[in-house]
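I'll show a record.
***
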Amino acid sequence: QKLAIRMGQQYIQTKLVEIDAAALFSKFFGESSKLVSRTFAKIEKLLHEEPNVFLCIMVDEIESLASRRQHSTGSNEPKDSMRAVNALLVALDRLGRHSNVIVFCTSNLIDTIDLAILDRIDIKQYLPGPSTKTRYEIFRRCYLDLFRCGILLPNQQRPRDDVDALDISVGTRPPETWGVVARPSIDYEVLPTYEVVELKYRSDQDSIPYRLWRIAERSAVGVSKGV
């Protein structure tokens, strides 16, 4: 959106074209490179037909389409993947002739991308995983959405052996069956923020805010990082 606003004085419109790299592979030999060529041929045709339109192309998980060709030559992998990479290189070179197009690529496995593809990328931006505070806010919003939809119901009773450890009940039981308050009350409709949890709830390890905070602390491993 910001790019479209900045380019608004030069182009009357900005369009986004998203390419699923994995969908360009075919089980039939030789078809993958043809699919790549056809896809980018349509894009190039659009650039010729609408020169006053700025085109943004998003290639998600490009490593599935542009894996290193050295791996293909040194293993039993079919040479069709090498042809697909060659077709992609040709397509990118042809797009470079146009001034009204920009290509964005995302990847979590940059080390597996072919070096020729990386050489054609002008800007490489590393995007780290979300911070602990951001992860907590993600979990907090998901919890609040489930609570507002009635999927999760508060149960402030101390957990017994047969009660869920998260101290919540799933279902549509009436409020009179929720149990009595056995700990400082929590406004489940306004779950505390990350800063409030660190100040007030770290000593109450059975509370839902603390448990969400602990999940956010431990969930750094496995969170996607990319370029």
